[in-house]
Amino acid sequence: MKQIKQYENEKVLVLGLAKSGFSAAKLLNDLGALVTVNDGKPFEENPEAQGLLEQGVRVITGHHPIELLDEDFSLMVKNPGIPYDNPLVAKAEELQIPILTEVELAYQIAECPIIGITGTNGKTTTTTMIGLLLNQERSAGKALLAGNIGFPASEVAMQASAEDDIVMELSSFQLMGVEEFKPQIAVITNIYEAHLDYHKTRENYVAAKWAIQANMTAEDFLVLNWNSEELQTMSKQTKAQVVPFSTKEKLLNGAYLLDGDLYYQAENIMPAAELGVPGAHNVENALAAIVVAKLKGVSNESIRSALSNFHGVPHRTQYVDTINGRKFYNDSKATNALATEMALSGFDNENLILLAGGLDRGNDFDELIPAFEGIKAILLFGETKEKLADTAKRAGIQTIIKTANVETAVPLAYEQSEAGDSILLSPANASWDQYPSFEIRGDKFMHAVKQLEK
């Protein structure tokens, strides 16, 4: 990593721990900063705080005293999940204390190129695909995954050598806290409406995503989803070289789907049917990954081989198993209707049994009616099961079964199925009414599938 001097003897407040806050505090301490960590979790329940205290870092836990900001900090490094209307953050803004997120620190110390991926949907799958492709036929270094995908960016940057690439998934929350951050290649998978409870307006949300390219130059590459008219318009506002991808039109300056095949410029890379993950959204993800791989010099043969053998990221249209001719897929990450709609595009509804339901956020599901049409059966659970049952009825689904939860839905779905069917968990809702996270919900689904084999 680069041995930067700018934080020596500077007073820095790290607000919020978890993985990224712990890594940021450790890095800043190593760089000679006078670090204070403030985290809401009590000290006795806070192994990260305990570990930092052992390293000589000042730790304040269990509450967020506003008086902390009387101490003349020169910088705040904020956990991305903490909103800007948090009293400490709002006070720091009032005092004009710079507020960064940990990805900015990662950029400042990274010796190698960064490939940044953001967007509303598809970030994790696209990031994983890119990492896989960039590790093909590589003679030196590695492509290292980092960021919102679960590996703290600053920790990865500390370990990376000049021969590596950091492939960094970036949320809108993280991108709000960057100043100099500049990837060599940036990808925006798509932009829909999301996280308005945090960003307040769609304009703020879009601006956060667009910040990924703010410091890019004509030597850098910005990979954009050309299916989006909004991104087409925004592309006129960047200094980077724009490389588009599309499933709707032929783009000889980018990647595209044509007659069932995936192309980069005029080169036929592979049939879309050979992708190891189903769904129109995964065709878009693959096209974005192909652009990055070609910009980095990966051969068509390696791209085809890697994408054919890629069977998905856990909880994102993840193939689980085939039991007596029934294929099971885990798409627990589908926490909104749009994500479920995109997942359904990869299946034949006549041979599909869907498991859905979860936390009621007050919305209806009218937009799912066209996607539901023709589904063989639907199993519903959670707070929204009545709403989804009404949607399913209006979509003409004949077999609608309400049940307690994901675990009880799996054997009931199997009973409704026959050889050749697919059984898909794609809930269209957050998990928090019944499960602490979408990951745990997906794990429960996969465990229930395994129980069918007994």
From TrEMBL:
GO MF, one example: ATP binding
Keyword list, A-Z: ATP-binding, Cell cycle, Cell division, Cell shape, Cell wall biogenesis/degradation, Cytoplasm, Ligase, Nucleotide-binding, Peptidoglycan synthesis
Listed InterPro entries: Folylpolyglutamate_synth_CS (IPR018109), Mur-like_cat_sf (IPR036565), Mur_ligase_C (IPR004101), Mur_ligase_C_dom_sf (IPR036615), Mur_ligase_cen (IPR013221), MurD (IPR005762)
Leader sequence residues: none
Pathway: Cell wall biogenesis; peptidoglycan biosynthesis
Protein's UniProt keywords contain Cell cycle: yes
Chief localisation class: cytoplasm
One GO cellular component term: cytoplasm
Alphabetized PROSITE patterns for the sequence: FOLYLPOLYGLU_SYNT_1
Residues reported to bind ATP: 119-125
Localization per record: Cytoplasm
Catalytic activity, reaction form: UDP-N-acetyl-alpha-D-muramoyl-L-alanine + D-glutamate + ATP = UDP-N-acetyl-alpha-D-muramoyl-L-alanyl-D-glutamate + ADP + phosphate + H(+)
Entry's EC annotation: 6.3.2.9
Domain named Mur ligase central: residues: 117-293
GO biological process: cell division; cell wall organization; peptidoglycan biosynthetic process; regulation of cell shape
Residue ranges occupied by any Mur ligase C-terminal domain in the UniProt entry: 315-428
NCBIfam families per the UniProt record, alphabetical: murD
PANTHER family: UDP-N-ACETYLMURAMOYLALANINE--D-GLUTAMATE LIGASE
Recorded family membership: Belongs to the MurCDEF family.
Function statement: Cell wall formation. Catalyzes the addition of glutamate to the nucleotide precursor UDP-N-acetylmuramoyl-L-alanine (UMA).
Name by which UniProt lists this protein: UDP-N-acetylmuramoylalanine--D-glutamate ligase
Organism this protein belongs to: Enterococcus devriesei
Gene behind this protein: murD
